[in-house]
TrEMBL record, chain A:
Keyword Ribosomal protein attributed: no
Record's keyword terms, sorted: ATP-binding, Nucleotide-binding
Top-level taxon: Bacteria
Sequence similarity: Belongs to the ABC transporter superfamily. Ycf16 family.
Organism phylogeny: Bacteria, Pseudomonadati, Pseudomonadota, Gammaproteobacteria, Chromatiales
GO MF annotation list: ATP binding; ATP hydrolysis activity
Entry protein name: Probable ABC transporter ATP-binding protein
TrEMBL record, chain B:
Taxonomy of the source species: Bacteria, Pseudomonadati, Pseudomonadota, Gammaproteobacteria, Chromatiales
Species for this entry: Nitrococcus mobilis Nb-231
Segments forming domain SUF system FeS cluster assembly SufBD N-terminal: 10-170
Protein family (similarity comment): Belongs to the iron-sulfur cluster assembly SufBD family.
InterPro entries linked: Fe-S_cluster_assembly_SufBD, SUF_FeS_clus_asmbl_SufBD_core, SUF_FeS_clus_asmbl_SufBD_sf, SUF_FeS_clus_asmbl_SufD, SufBD_N
All copies of domain SUF system FeS cluster assembly SufBD core, residue ranges: 180-408
Protein name in UniProt: FeS assembly protein SufD
C-alpha cells in the first residue's frame, strides 16, 4: 500500500482547468520533488491534496494510506496525517502560536482516539521541537505569523510540521523568498524530520533547495501534467537547460 | 403625528403626577423642569432626525413606560454579577433605586467622595451641582432630557485635586423582572479635579424577562491634567431597551479613556459625546459590540476638538451573528481654533450571519487647516484563507470560526487596564463566540 497514490487527477478553479491528469505514487519514507515553471499547477496540486474548497476536483482519485482522500474535509485530512506547508503562511493576529498548535495537536489526537496532552506535556513538547528546528522560543508566544519575517514564517511552518508529525508533508515552495542561510535552516529542519515512515512532497521552482533536501524522485510538472519523472539528477538537468526542453513533451 | 403628540402628553402627565408629590430641593426641581420642557420641545426622535435615522424606536414608542416605583426582587444569577469585579468601591442601584446593602463605600480613600444623590438632599456641593446637567445636551438629546426630568437617584463621584484613587469605582445598575414596562433613569456624575486619577466602571445588568426602558446618562468632567478611565459594560437582558448617553468634558491636558462593551438588550444605543475643550486634551474611545438573534446595537459618537494639540483615538469593532443589526456612526469635528490636533477613527465589523447588517458611518468635519485626521471602516466576513489554514492544521470549521472571531474581537479588550475587568469581558466574549466553545486559553 502506497502512502499516497494520485490517479488521473483533474481540478479546476473558477471554471479553468489547472490539473489535467496527474499520476503520482509516493511510498512511505520517500521524498518526492515537483518542479515546474510558474502557472504549471504546482501549488494547485498542493492545495487540492489539502482540500482547499476553492478548487473543484473534476476527475480522478487520490488515496492516502488506502483512504479516499478526496472524500475527507480539510481538517480530517490533517487529522489523518496530511500536512501542507504554505507558500504564504497566513497571519492570525490575536491567537498565539502556542494556543494555535495546542488546538491543532489536540484535535488530531482526539480524532485518532489518543489522549489529549495536558498543558505541561504540551509545553515540553513544543519547546523541544522548537529547538530541533531552530525556532526562537519567543516566537511561540507571538500571534501566529504576525509580524514574522519571511524566514520566520517558513521556519514556523516546519516547526508546526515537527509538532504535528504528519505521515505526509507537502511543502509548497517553502524555499521561495529565502536567502541561503534561511534556506539551509529550513532544509535542516526538514531533513531532521525525514524517517522511514514519513513521506515528503517538496514543491519548488528552483533546484537550489534540492541540494539540501535530496529527493528520491523528481517530477516535472508542465501545464497541469507530469511530463517527466527521474532521479535527483533530473533537477540538475533542469537547472541547466530550463523547462523549454520539456515543452514539446507537454504539447 | 397624533401618536407622537399622545406620547408626549403621557410622559408629561407622568411628570406632573410625579413632581406633585415630590419634595425636591429647589435646584433639582428646576433641573427636572428643564428636562421635561426639553423633552416636550423635542419629543421622541422620528426617523427624519438624522442622528436617529437608523434607530427603529417603534417598540419603545408603542409602550408607555412608567418610572419604576421601587426595587424589584432578584434571582441569584443577577445577584452574583454584583461581585464579579472583586475589591472595589461600589454603588448598586436596583431598578434605579439605591441598594445600600449591596453597595460598598466603607473604606473610601482620602480624596474620593462617592455616594448616591439621594443622600445629599439640599446640600449638594456646588462642583457637583455645576456638573449635573451642566455639560450634556439636554436640549438636543431627547433621552437625556427624559432622564433629566425623571431620574430619581444617581451616583455621585468626586475626586479631589491631585488625588489618585487606586481601587476602581464600580456602579452597578440592575434591572429585575419587575421592571417590565417600567422606565429606569440612572444618572452618574463624575468630577475629577485637577491632576486627579480615577477609574469608573458602569455595569448594566438585567434579567431576560422584562421589557424595560433604561435611559442612563453619565457625565464625566475631567479637569486640567486629570486622568479618567471609564468602562461601560452593557449586558442587559434579552428583552430590554437601553438608550444611554455618556458625556465627557475634557479640560487642558486631561486624559479620558472610554471603553464600551455592548452585548445585551434587544434594542441598545449608547451616544458618546467627548468634548476636548482644553489644549492637549486626550480622548480615547474604544468599543466592542457583540450581537446575535435580532438584536439591534448602536454607537453614536461625537468627538469635538475645540482646542489645539488635542488627540483622539477611536476604534469600534462589531461581531454580528444571526439577523442582528448594528450601527456605528461617529463624527469627529475639528473647530477652527483647534490646530495641531490628531484624530483617528476606525470601525471594523465582522459579519457572521448571512442576514446580519452593519451600518458604518465614520465622519470628519474639519474647520482647521493644520491637523492630522484619519478614518476608516470595514465590513467583512471571516477570511477564507485563514479558515483553510486552520483546517489544514486539523482544527475543525466550528473551532476555526470561533478562534478567528475571538482574535478579531479580543483586540478591543487589550486596552482594558484592569485585569479583573479584562478577564470578565473576555469571558463574556468567549460565551458569545460562534461555533464550538473555546477553552479560554487563547493567547
Amino acid at each position: 500500500m502506497a502512502l499516497l497514490e494520485i490517479r488521473n487527477l483533474h481540478a479546476k478553479i473558477q471554471g479553468v482547468e489547472i490539473l489535467k491528469g496527474i499520476n503520482l505514487k509516493i511510498e512511505r519514507g520517500e521524498t518526492h520533488a515537483i518542479m515546474g515553471p510558474n502557472g504549471s499547477g504546482k501549488s494547485t496540486l498542493a492545495k487540492v491534496l489539502a482540500g482547499d474548497p476553492s478548487y473543484e476536483v473534476t476527475d480522478g482519485e487520490v488515496f492516502f494510506q488506502d483512504r479516499n482522500l478526496l472524500e475527507l474535509s480539510p481538517e480530517d485530512r490533517a487529522r489523518e496525517g496530511v500536512f501542507l506547508g504554505f507558500q504564504y503562511p497566513v497571519e492570525i493576529p490575536g491567537v498565539s502560536n502556542t494556543y494555535f498548535l495546542k488546538a491543532a495537536l489536540n484535535a488530531i489526537r482526539k480524532y485518532r482516539g489518543e489522549q489529549e496532552l495536558d498543558a505541561m506535556e504540551f509545553l515540553q513538547l513544543i519547546k523541544e521541537r522548537a529547538k530541533s528546528v531552530n525556532l526562537d522560543e519567543s516566537l511561540l508566544r507571538r500571534p501566529v505569523n504576525e509580524g514574522f519575517s519571511g524566514g520566520e514564517k517558513k521556519r514556523n511552518e516546519i516547526f508546526q510540521l515537527a509538532v504535528l508529525e504528519p505521515y505526509l508533508a507537502i511543502l509548497d515552495e517553502t524555499d521561495s523568498g529565502l536567502d541561503i542561510d534561511a534556506l539551509r535552516t529550513v532544509a535542516e529542519g526538514v531533513n531532521s524530520l525525514r524517517n522511514e515512515e514519513r513521506g515528503f512532497l517538496v514543491i519548488t521552482h528552483y533546484q537550489r533547495l534540492l541540494n539540501y533536501i535530496v529527493p528520491d524522485e523528481v517530477h516535472v510538472l508542465l501545464r497541469g501534467r507530469i511530463v517527466k519523472t527521474g532521479g535527483k539528477e533530473l533537477a540538475e538537468e533542469l537547472e541547466e537547460s530550463g523547462y523549454a526542453l520539456f515543452e514539446e513533451a507537454a504539447a | 403625528m397624533e401618536a407622537i403628540a399622545e406620547q408626549k402628553s403621557v410622559y408629561l402627565q407622568d411628570y406632573e403626577a410625579h413632581s406633585a408629590h415630590q419634595d425636591a430641593p429647589e435646584w433639582l426641581a428646576r433641573l427636572r423642569q428643564h428636562g421635561i420642557e426639553c423633552f416636550e420641545a423635542q419629543g421622541f426622535p422620528g426617523r427624519k432626525v438624522e442622528a436617529w435615522r437608523k434607530t427603529d424606536l417603534t417598540p419603545v414608542l408603542r409602550e408607555h413606560f412608567v418610572p419604576a416605583s421601587g426595587p424589584g426582587q432578584m434571582g441569584p444569577e443577577l445577584l452574583e454579577k454584583v461581585g464579579v469585579l472583586g475589591q472595589v468601591h461600589r454603588l448598586v442601584f436596583v431598578d434605579g433605586w439605591f441598594d445600600p446593602g449591596l453597595s460598598d463605600v466603607d473604606k473610601l480613600p482620602n480624596g474620593l467622595t462617592l455616594a448616591p444623590l439621594s443622600e445629599y438632599g439640599e446640600r449638594l456641593p456646588a462642583v457637583i451641582q455645576e456638573a449635573l446637567g451642566g455639560f450634556v445636551d439636554t436640549e438636543t438629546h431627547p433621552f437625556t432630557a427624559l432622564n433629566t426630568a425623571f431620574f430619581r437617584d444617581g451616583a455621585i463621584m468626586h475626586v479631589a485635586r491631585g488625588a489618585t484613587v487606586e481601587q476602581p469605582v464600580v456602579v452597578v445598575h440592575l434591572l429585575t423582572p419587575e421592571a417590565d414596562r417600567r422606565a429606569v433613569y440612572p444618572r452618574t456624575v463624575l468630577v475629577a479635579e485637577e491632576a486627579s486619577q480615577v477609574t469608573l466602571i458602569e455595569q448594566f445588568v438585567g434579567a431576560d424577562e422584562p421589557f424595560a426602558l433604561n435611559c442612563p446618562v453619565t457625565e464625566i468632567v475631567a479637569r486640567q491634567g486629570a486622568n479618567v478611565d471609564y468602562y461601560k459594560v452593557q449586558e442587559e437582558g434579552a428583552g430590554s431597551a437601553h438608550l444611554g448617553a455618556v458625556h465627557a468634558e475634557t479640560f487642558r491636558d486631561a486624559t479620558v479613556h472610554i471603553h464600551s462593551l455592548a452585548c445585551g438588550a434587544k434594542l441598545a444605543r449608547t451616544d458618546i459625546y467627548a468634548n476636548l475643550i482644553g489644549p492637549g486634551a486626550d480622548v480615547t474611545l474604544n468599543g466592542l459590540y457583540l450581537t446575535t438573534g435580532r438584536q439591534y446595537c448602536d454607537h453614536h459618537t461625537w468627538v469635538n476638538h475645540k482646542a489645539e494639540h488635542g488627540t483622539s483615538r477611536q476604534v469600534f469593532k462589531g461581531v454580528l451573528q444571526g439577523r442582528s443589526e448594528t450601527v456605528f456612526d461617529g463624527l469627529v469635528k475639528v473647530f477652527e481654533r483647534a490646530q495641531k490636533i490628531d484624530a483617528q477613527q476606525q470601525n471594523r465589523n465582522l459579519l457572521l450571519g448571512k442576514l446580519a447588517l452593519a451600518h458604518s458611518n465614520p465622519r470628519l468635519e474639519i474647520h482647521a487647516d493644520d491637523v492630522k485626521c484619519s478614518h476608516g471602516s470595514t465590513v467583512g466576513k471571516l477570511d477564507d484563507e485563514a479558515l483553510f489554514y486552520l483546517n489544514t492544521r486539523g482544527i475543525g470549521l466550528d473551532e476555526a470560526q470561533g478562534l478567528l472571531t475571538f482574535a478579531f474581537a479580543a483586540e478591543m479588550l487589550k486596552p482594558i487596564r484592569l485585569d479583573r475587568l479584562y478577564q470578565y469581558e473576555r469571558q463574556l466574549l468567549l460565551q458569545r463566540l460562534p461555533g464550538a466553545e473555546l477553552t479560554g486559553e487563547v493567547l
